[in-house]
Specification:
46% of the residues lie in helices and 16% in strands. With 404 residues, the protein is of the alpha/beta class. The chain has two domains: 274 residues, Rossmann fold (3-Layer(aba) Sandwich), CATH 3.40.50; 113 residues, Rossmann fold, CATH 3.40.50.1100. The site of pyridoxal-5'-phosphate has 20 residues, from α5, α11 and α15. Its cofactor is pyridoxal 5'-phosphate.
Length: 404
C-alpha cells in the first residue's frame, strides 16, 4: 500500500526510511568520477563525468528500488514476492533485497537470458531466490505461449504476465516491478540527488545529462533532479539513449498500452512498441522492453528530454574504449550512455567548445563477458527495427483510448 501511495503521490519530497538507509550505506553514496583518461583518449576539450552505480552488491542501480520495495512489503506482512527479469539484473537485485528482509523471492527469467546467463541465475540462488525460465508451464500465461510456440525464447512482457498472474492467484504473494513505474523512479532519484551534490563539490554543473533507457529508471534517477533545475530556467540537455533494435522513444507510438503481453496491468500512457512486441536478441537484455516510463514519456512529449537511438556495434566500440581508458568494464546497457557521451564529446571537439557532460554508468559488465566475446569474434551484428514492426504496433493500438 505504501508503494501504491508513492505511485500516486503529489508530494515534492518523500524521506528514505532509516532501515533502507542502513542498507544503502553498504555502497552509497556511489562515486562520481571525472573520466580524465577517456577525455584524453578522445582529445576533447569537453569534461566528462560519470556516476557509477556498479558498486552495489548486485552490480547495478536496481537495488536502489529493490531495497525499499522489499522493506515496505516486509512492513506490511507480505511473505513472498514474484518478479520477472531479463538480463538478470533486476532479479538479482530483488533477491538481494528479499534476503535482507526475510521475504521469499521467485523470479521468472526470460528464457534466452536463463540460457545465456547462468551466473546471474546462480547469483539469485545464492541470495536465496528461486528462478524459473519464462515462458514456463507454471502459469496460464506461460502455458498459452508455449502451446503456440514451444521454442519461444521469452520476452520481458511475457515474464511480467507470469509473475503478475502468480501474485494475483496467491494471498501471501505480491508482485514487484523494477522499472517504469512512478515509485521506482522516485527511489532511483537518489542517484541524481547525490550527483548534484557531488558536481557541486567538484565546482561544476552539466550542460548535458545522459543515460541509457530500458524502462527509464536509471536515466530518470540521474536526470530528473537536474530537469527540476531546467524547468526553473537552467540551460541543460537531457538525452535518453536506446538501442536501434528497440527504439521505443525515437520510433514508438505515444499511446495507452499494457505493460505486459497478457494485458493484465493497467493501461499507461507511454511511448510503446506494442505489448506484443518481440525484441531482437541484442546483447543489452535490460533495454529490450516495449514500453517507457510514463513520467519519462511525458517529459519527452513536453520537449524536456531528447531520445537517441544507437546501434549495437558502435555501443560495444564505446564500451571497449571506456574499459581501456577508465578501467571499468561497463554493462552493455550502460555502454549505450557511454556511446552518446563520447559522441557529444567528439562534437564538442569539432566545434572547439567547452562542454560538461554527465552520464550514468548504470552497472558493470562482469556477467556479460559472453557478449564481449561475441563482439571480439565478429559475431555481433547491427539490427534496426523494420518499419513493419512499427506498423504492427500501430494496428494493435489503434482501438485503445487516445492519449490527447
Ligand atoms: C536494467 C538495467 C538498465 C535498464 O533499465 P532502466 O529501468 O531503463 O534503468 C540499464 N542498465 C543496467 C545496468 C540495468 O541492469
Amino acid at each position: 500500500m505504501e508503494l501504491i501511495k508513492q505511485e500516486v503521490s503529489q508530494e515534492r519530497w518523500i524521506d528514505i526510511p532509516e532501515e533502507v538507509f542502513d542498507i544503502y550505506r553498504l555502497w552509497r553514496p556511489s562515486p562520481l568520477f571525472r573520466a580524465r583518461r577517456l577525455e584524453k583518449a578522445l582529445d576533447t576539450p569537453a569534461k566528462i563525468y560519470y556516476k557509477y552505480e556498479g558498486v552495489s552488491p548486485a552490480g547495478s542501480h536496481k537495488p536502489n528500488t529493490a531495497i525499499p520495495q522489499a522493506y515496505y512489503n516486509m512492513k506490511e506482512g507480505v511473505k513472498r514476492l514474484t518478479t520477472e527479469t531479463g538480463a538478470g539484473q533486476w532479479g538479482s537485485s530483488l533477491a538481494l533485497a528479499c534476503n535482507y528482509f526475510g521475504i521469499e523471492c521467485k523470479v521468472y527469467m526470460v528464457k534466452i537470458s536463463y540460457q545465456q546467463k547462468p551466473y546471474r541465475r546462480l547469483m539469485m540462488q545464492t541470495w536465496g531466490a528461486s528462478v524459473v525460465a519464462s515462458p514456463s508451464d507454471q502459469t496460464d500465461a506461460g502455458r498459452r505461449i508455449l502451446e503456440k510456440d514451444p521454442n519461444c525464447l521469452g520476452s520481458l512482457g511475457i515474464a511480467i504476465s507470469e509473475a503478475v498472474e502468480e501474485a494475483a492467484k496467491r494471498d501471501d504473494t505480491k508482485y514487484a516491478l523494477g522499472s517504469v513505474l512512478n515509485h521506482v523512479l522516485i527511489h532511483q532519484s537518489v542517484i541524481g540527488l547525490e550527483a548534484k551534490r557531488q558536481m557541486e563539490m567538484a565546482g561544476d554543473y552539466p550542460d548535458i545529462v545522459i543515460g541509457c533507457v530500458g524502462g527509464g529508471s536509471n536515466f530518470a534517477g540521474l536526470a530528473f533532479p537536474f530537469i527540476q533545475d531546467k524547468m526553473q530556467g537552467k540551460a541543460l540537455r537531457a538525452v535518453a539513449v536506446e538501442p536501434a533494435a528497440c527504439p521505443t522513444i525515437t520510433r514508438g507510438l505515444y499511446a495507452y498500452d499494457f505493460g505486459d503481453t497478457a494485458q493484465m496491468t493497467p493501461l499507461m500512457a507511454m511511448f510503446t512498441l506494442g505489448h506484443d512486441f518481440m525484441p531482437a536478441g541484442i546483447h543489452a537484455g535490460g533495454l529490450r522492453y516495449h514500453g517507457m516510463a510514463p513520467l519519462l514519456s511525458h517529459l519527452v512529449k513536453l520537449g524536456q528530454i531528447e531520445g537517441k537511438a544507437v546501434h549495437q556495434l558502435e555501443v560495444f566500440d564505446a564500451a571497449v574504449k571506456f574499459a581501456r581508458s577508465e578501467g571499468i568494464i561497463p554493462a552493455p546497457e550502460s555502454a549505450h550512455a557511454i556511446r552518446a557521451a563520447i559522441d557529444e564529446a567528439l562534437l564538442a571537439k569539432d566545434a572547439g567548445q567547452q562542454k560538461t557532460i554527465l552520464f550514468n554508468l548504470s552497472g558493470h559488465g562482469h556477467f556479460d563477458m559472453v557478449s564481449y566475446d561475441a563482439y571480439f569474434s565478429g559475431k555481433l551484428q547491427d539490427y534496426a527495427l523494420p518499419q513493419e514492426e512499427i506498423d504492427r504496433a500501430e494496428a494493435v493500438l489503434k482501438d485503445y483510448p487516445a492519449t490527447e
